[in-house]
Amino acid sequence: MNFFRGVMGGQAAGPQPSGADTIQKLCDRVASSTLLEDRRDAVRALKSLSKKYRMEVGVQAMDHLINILQTDRSDSEILGYALDTLYNIICNDEEEEQDESEDEASQKQADDLGAKFTEAFIQNGEHITLLLTLLEEFDFHVRWPGVKLLTALLKSQCVQVQSVILVSPMGVSRLMDLLADSREVIRNDGLLLLQQLTKGNAAIQKIVAFENAFERLLDIITEEGSSDGGIVVEDCLLLLLNLLKNNSSNQNFFKEGSFIQRMRPWFEVGDDNSGWSAQKVTNLHLMLQLVRVMVSPVNSPGATASCQKSMFQCGLLQQLCTILMATGVPADILTETINTVSEVIRGSQVNQDYFASVNAPSNPPRPAIVVLLLSMVSEKQPFVLRCAVLYCFQCFLYKNQKGQGEIVATLLPSTIDTNSVSAGQLLCGGLFSVDSLSNWCAAVALAHALQDNLIQKEQLLRVQLATSLGKPPVSLLQQCTNILSQGDKINRRGSKVQTRVGLLMLLCTWINNCPIAVTHFLHNQENVPFLTAQISENLGEDERLVQGLCALLLGICIYYNDNSLENYTKEKLKQLIEKRIGKENFVEKLSFITKHELYSRAGQKPQPVFLSPEQMLFDHEFTKLVKELEGVITKAVHKSSEEEKKEEEVKKTLEQHDNIVTQYKELIREQDAKIQEMKEQVATITTQNEEMQTTVAQQLSQIQQHKDQYNILKLKLGKDNQSQANPPQGDGSHVNGIQMEEVSQLREEIEELRNQHALLQTQLSDKEVLIETLRSEGSEPVEGAPAGPDNTELLKELELLRSQVQTQTAEISQLKTENQDLLKRVETGSIDAASSGDASVDASNVAELESRLAAQTSEMERLKEEVRGLTQGRAQLEHQEASATSSVAILETEKTKLQTALQESKKEQDDLLMLLADQDQKILNLKQRLKDLGQTVEDEDDLDTMRDQTDEDEEEDEDED
User: Fold this and answer.
1) What is the C-alpha radius of gyration for the chain, rounded to an integer number of angstroms?
2) Which of 28, 181, 527, 856 falls between 20 and 30 A from 598, CA-CA?
3) Structural domains of the chain, ranges and CATH numbers in brackets
4) Rounded Cα–Cα distance for residues 267 and 226 (Å)
5) What is the b/e burial string over 485-513, where b = at least 16 CB atoms within 10 angstroms of the residue's CB?
6) How far is CA 238 from CA 153, 235, 286, in A?
7) Nearest CA to 352 among 398, 385, 391?
8) Sign of the C-alpha dihedral, residues 122, 126, 131, 135?
9) Contact 426, 432 (CB under 8 A)
10) What are the pLDDT digits (tens) for 537-581?
């Protein structure tokens, strides 16, 4: 222990060792000590030195510390010291806290040091696997340092560590278990670990999501108090954002899992909105971002629409609108809520209609749209809030022709209400106010009310404005062009460029693809000279954008000109451009729009995001319009009159072709409708067919049941009659209920008897030959046999054998006669009914029974044919359900007839059963008589034995001869 006292600062004599020497000694101690306590003390000392001597400990001790993690798994204390030491040399947090006064170069050096040690640690992928294994330890001193170390590794080398964890078996699942830990500090650090793990890796994000992460995170948010919770709620929300942002698979899983419904309680802020802590503002801001992730315009349209529908159905949109109209809400939360509502209603007709019906809690109530537009055109409101309101108005009108018509209707003379402020009046007021930002916002908002809506463009031409007392009213279109032409004379706006850009975007959107609006614009004799003058002048850099927009407006007047004004036909306008401006100069000025640096920024996403009001020059939808028109306007300016005529002819041809295609499309739609209707009919008929088949199957089953009952009854009656006619015998079980099988068995037995008879005849012939041989040679002495008394005995034996053979021949002849008689009677169905064989059954009765049996069999076959007919007639049954019911009734009638016929034939069947039983008994008697005669009639082995015996007798006779 004196060694450690010296290391830890004891008062030992002599010079003190340097830090590197001390660390080297401690590393040697860790490597060489056999006692666990010594290694533990050495690792503890390294931990205490790791913050001050970060590089030395990292370079010399890392391998030893990793070895400790591998070998000393049984001691949680030494594992904890080793993990803490590795964390200190890899993590940069402590360095940042201690060296806040250092310059950027020192901080960069510290970061590089952490990255270097991280790279050394993860160079072997097994180290990460080892660390994941240690996280399974429940001991707090091992699990918590392990979580912090893995988090530090991810912060330093995120991509490399992610790739190792991704291929590690059950790697992500082990980390997900941290969220279920009952110790809050481990659970909270586990959240931080998963935040780092899921950054920018879609594969890991999917695995984490399918490991039930959404359920666990939402439970934690609820337990911690939702928006009123602390930093833990913030960490959960950040992790949810990582899992859902730009991950369509997880978004779909989140929606399908009904987790959107669980977001609604987050936004129940209550009536008292005075106490908004900084943490609550942060939490609610993240919650709103989470909603926006699900309905972002960059998502697929189908997924966004599905989420929008769910948010409306569960009441989430209604809750957001409540926050929108509430008082006391912080400005940044209100701004983010407006942006969130914007994307929830964007492109969804149901949500847009609901938003149009929302009223502010004022007296009298005013529509929420009007209240928001008041904020947009007010100079006193914050810039970001005004941008959010503009975005909300744009989303409300996006693909919403109904909403566009309602906004434009508030400007028409017949619908103006002088008692209240309408949306149209606010837009006109902002369009002609002295605030250039209000001019631009109002112009863009009004342009969105006309986007892709020809009807509203024509309706807006009816709007008349009263400029001053005593002067006639002018149209809204004329007033916009007047402001443009008088812009240089009236220097009452803070930023002429922003105002004119807004008005030019409105005019371009208005007259685009609307020949009537083009005619109204050209009807003013001052407009075309103003545009040509603006384009042809050599102005400064700030005016180039205005020149390009003027060229775009003039180009639209050429492209959509219907030649209704003689002075401003397409050809004359092109000649004017060629004389006053020059075609090449015109095209060059037109290209200034797309070359502007703010043009590409506005085209990236629909939401207007600007760092300052001066940057508000382009609208997202207008950038799409410029892309569509730039090419066609350039071609239109360079085309000659002949080319235009040809193009018009081509257009007419294309229109005719389009009409034909439209007709075919309508025909196809009609056919599709008919096909769909026929499919429905087929589905209905198929269902009916299945029902009919089920009914037929039930009927067939009932018929089979009746057949089985009939056979059982017949068998019962046969057994009863046999027991009454004859006493029970051992072989009486031969009678069964199936007549055809019984006859077949009888025929097989008869055939067997015939074979046995043929065998007996063969044996008899052999015996006769033997007897004749013996007779012919009886008087002659046998060669080689002794003379005298022995021959006399042999002759006596031969005489005895001759008499036996004669007796046996007589018996066989009698048996042969009886057997032939039996065969005749079996074949004609006339076997003796009595056991003694004295009484006989009339053959005609048996034939009559057999004919009735055949008739019954044919009746059953007829019934089967009717069933087959029912099966084959399924097509008629599909169209005639009533006839199917009738067929079933007929089948029931036939079944009843069959039952009646069966009952009537019971007595006749009883006679047949009696005959069959007597026949079996007669056969048994015959077999027994054959056995008594010494013949084998059933066992083939006995027949073989008898043949062998006969052969042996013949050989003995030959020997004797």
Assistant:
1) 54
2) 527
3) 416-639 (1.25.10.10)
4) 9
5) bebeeeeebebbbbbbbbbbbbbbbbbbb
6) 19, 5, 7
7) 398
8) positive
9) no
10) 877 666 888 999 999 999 999 999 888 888 888 889 999 998 888
